[in-house]
From TrEMBL:
Organism annotation: Asarcornis scutulata
Transmembrane segments: 15-33, 67-88, 100-120, 154-174, 186-203, 208-226, 246-267, 575-597, 641-662, 674-694
Molecular-function annotations in GO: dolichyl-phosphate-mannose-protein mannosyltransferase activity
Family (UniProt): Belongs to the glycosyltransferase 39 family.
Subcellular location: Endoplasmic reticulum membrane
Name of this chain's protein: Protein O-mannosyl-transferase 1
Origin superkingdom: Eukaryota
CDD domains: beta-trefoil_MIR_POMT1
Length: 725
């Protein structure tokens, strides 16, 4: 039984020394002096705010993309024991002792370091030599811009890591496809492709470009499989389902999980709540939840309510009225009804309260039992403080003359009768008998007499309207818009029939206890929509640039400047590497066109397997560059040089591919090969020299003199900071 103990247990392992050395060198280059400078560097002022909010569990919305990248940065803060207490208000501010700078910058640095062995493995999986793979990895290692971007609390290095991981995983999966389909390793790499794609998209929406590229390549490969007569229909179906599961279903599920974790962590009310709906705000701890907790759920006749416009633009506001009337004549000479003004007011106020009245009864209190208002019911809305009825008529609105004026009716004993009946239409109803619900129901108020809909125009009234927002009656025929939709935010059941008692009641808090928790999918849908549609005003930035500036690196970004010395950090690339990458791309395109024309004439300059490798390399490297660069020409947003880094990474990988191809098929005799290799060594030495020259502004040390800084200004368009003497 114990015979197996007679021989020693031997474990053998293959270690790729190239891979180990590259990984160690990558870690050294990215982690060395990581805490320096101990000050806020460029966009750390932006991402740091979100890290602090995560530490304090306070809800926020970032319109730049999904939350996964922010959560990874917050993880670094959590591991370092960060309490979130730091004021991220300016670039260059010194970090206080409670900020774990090294920990906050660790994950981006690790991601940047791991991009180097990933680049090596990608080139190996593309069937190029280990020498070419080593060269490509070293170019990534010595790329100054990638070093700078990975050493701070920024997201680009994490994005590039997941992009390269997705590409590598797919290539490994594809290479296994030929001889071991549906094996354990085949499944691992296929699933990892989907996971990495989801993570890339979850860090920044730029990851979607590479994800779409891999889906297209996978679709092309599956199309080629359809022509394989050795595969049965059942086998093809299994291949299709496996790819659908790994490349579509799992990424979607993971993307949802990022938001689930995000919303679970951020359960407290914060400064970004106000752009969300009342229902979303009420689901958070504190803030609106403190006000709305205990409100009645169903709106009934006699209910006292505040009505918030769902659009939330140009700012959140509530239906409002006050004793002031519209001017008899406006500045342009048009006349008004001189009725009581109705506006949308962006602050909580007692004049935001309205009473839902049954037109057939005089009472302004809720009966016992309450009579709920349903979809399609006719109501009157009575202003709580002035007791005047919400009204609209065929009079032009003050700032929107093609729409109707909305007012609270004053009886001047003239031929202008009250028109104050409104039909309640629940937009998000499940059936035509739905009850109007607090916070949850989104409703339109359709004027019975004119069929106009109560709408926020968004225009600011003049001084006579206290700069409050205009509310109008808009014809239904002009279409549906969120500015026509309102929801009840605060709500109580009115109990006082006398006006003085009712005014006291309007100032008092609600008392009944009903929970209004949204489902995760409802919260996800709303938050996702806000991220996609909420756009901050893009302002011209000192270091913003156009996509055309990136190819030739005609721009740079000053990330940090020492307060007293000349030490500074810039986002600047290795000029020689960028130029070589552009040349490699041009050579690849020209050679590809030449080969295609020659192949059309039945002239085959290179073997078929070499042609297939050449095409596969182009799909990944040229395709990766194109999909990560060209879309920026269509974007209307402020652009920076760091947006080009994912595209640049793919373009750098193309350099060793082109060099090996030229060496193998254009330098056919020994002498040209030897000379070509000597040129490559000289060129590579120059790449290292450029890297070394710009290292002081990559790492921020040592401090350079004015003369040395001027010498680094290789292009007139570069903004190297020089202090006045």
């Amino acid at each position: 039984m114990l015979g197996f103990l007679k021989n020693p247990v031997v474990v053998t392992a293959e270690i790729n020394v190239n891979l180990v050395v590259l990984t160690v060198m990558g870690l050294i280059s990215r982690l060395w002096g990581l805490s320096y400078p101990r000050a806020v560097v460029f966009d750390e002022v932006y991402y740091g705010q979100f890290v602090s909010l995560y530490m304090k569990r306070i809800f926020f919305v970032d319109d730049s993309g999904p939350p996964f990248g922010h959560m990874l940065l917050a993880l670094g803060g959590y591991l370092g024991g960060f309490d979130g207490n730091f004021l991220w208000n300016r670039i260059g501010a010194e970090y206080s002792m409670n900020v774990p700078v090294w920990s906050l910058r660790l994950l981006p640095a690790l991601a940047g370091a791991l991009c180097i062995p990933l680049a090596y493995q990608i080139l190996v999986e593309l069937q190029f030599s280990h020498c070419a793979a080593l060269g490509g990895a070293l170019l990534i290692l010595l790329e100054n811009s990638l070093i700078t971007q990975s050493r701070f609390m920024l997201l680009e290095s994490i994005l590039i890591f997941f992009i390269l991981l997705a590409v590598l995983s797919y290539l490994k999966f594809y290479n296994l496809q030929r001889h071991s389909s549906f094996s354990a390793s085949w499944w691992v790499w296929l699933l990892l492709t989907g996971v990495a794609c989801s993570c890339a998209v979850g860090v920044k929406y730029m990851g979607l470009f590479t994800y779409m590229l891999l889906l297209a390549i996978a679709g092309l490969h599956f199309w080629q499989m359809l022509g394989n007569q050795n595969l049965s229909n059942v086998s093809l179906l299994c291949h299709f389902l496996a790819r659908g599961l790994a490349l579509i279903i799992i990424p979607v599920a993971m993307y949802l999980s990022f938001f689930y974790v995000h919303l679970t962590l951020l359960y407290r009310s914060g400064p970004h709540d106000q752009i969300m709906t009342s229902a979303f705000q009420a689901s958070l701890e504190g803030g609106l939840a403190r006000i709305t907790q205990g409100q009645p759920l169903e709106v009934a006749y006699g209910s006292q309510i505040t009505l918030r416009n769902v659009l939330g633009k140009p700012m959140q506001c509530w239906l409002h009225s006050h004793t002031n009337t519209y001017p008899i004549r406006y500045e342009n000479g048009r006349g008004s009804s001189h009725q009581q003004q109705v506006t949308c007011y962006p602050f909580k106020d007692v004049n935001n309260w309205w009473i839902v009245k049954d037109p057939g009864m005089q009472q302004l209190v809720v009966s016992n039992p309450p009579r709920p208002v349903r979809h399609g019911h006719i109501v009157q809305l009575v202003h709580g403080i002035t007791t005047r009825y919400l009204n609209t008529h065929d009079v032009a609105a003050p700032l929107s003359p093609h729409s109707q004026e909305v007012s609270c009716y004053i009886d001047y004993n003239v031929s202008m009768p009250a028109q104050n009946l409104w039909r309640v239409e629940i937009v998000n109803r499940e059936s035509d008998t739905d009850v109007w619900k607090t916070i949850l129901s989104e409703v339109r108020f359709v004027h019975v007499n004119t069929s106009a809909v109560l709408k926020l125009s968004g225009a600011s009234l003049p001084e006579w309207g206290y700069r409050q927002l205009e509310v109008v009656g808009e014809k239904l025929s002009k279409g549906y818009h969120q500015s026509m939709v309102w929801n009840v935010e605060e709500h109580r059941y009115g109990k006082s029939q006398e006006q003085k008692e009712r005014e006291v009641e309007l100032h008092s808090p609600t008392q009944m206890d009903i929970s209004k928790n949204l489902s995760f999918m409802a919260k996800f849908t709303e938050l996702q929509w806000k991220i996609l549609t909420l756009k901050n005003e893009d302002t011209e930035h000192k270091y913003s640039s156009s996509a055309l500036d990136w190819i030739t690196m005609d721009t740079n970004i000053a990330y940090w400047l020492h307060p007293t010395s000349g030490a500074q950090i810039h986002l600047l690339g290795n000029v020689l590497t960028w130029a070589s990458a552009n040349v490699a791309a041009v050579i690849y395109v020209c050679l590809s066109l030449w080969y295609l024309v020659r192949r059309r004439r039945k002239i085959y300059d290179i073997p078929e397997d070499a042609w297939q490798l050449w095409v596969s390399a182009g799909e990944i490297c040229v395709g990766g560059w194109a999909v990560n660069y060209l879309p920026f020409f269509l974007m209307e947003k402020t652009l920076f040089l760091y947006h080009y880094l994912p595209a640049l990474t793919f373009q750098i990988l193309l350099i060793p591919i082109v060099l090996q191809h030229l060496s193998d098929y254009l330098c056919r005799s020994l002498l040209p090969k030897t000379m070509f290799r000597a040129l490559i060594v000289a060129w590579f030495s120059s790449v290292y020299l450029v890297y070394s020259t710009f290292s002081p502004v990559t790492y921020g040390e040592p401090s350079l003199s004015v003369a040395e800084l001027k010498d680094l200004r290789w292009k007139d368009s570069w903004n190297i900071l020089i202090r006045k003497q």
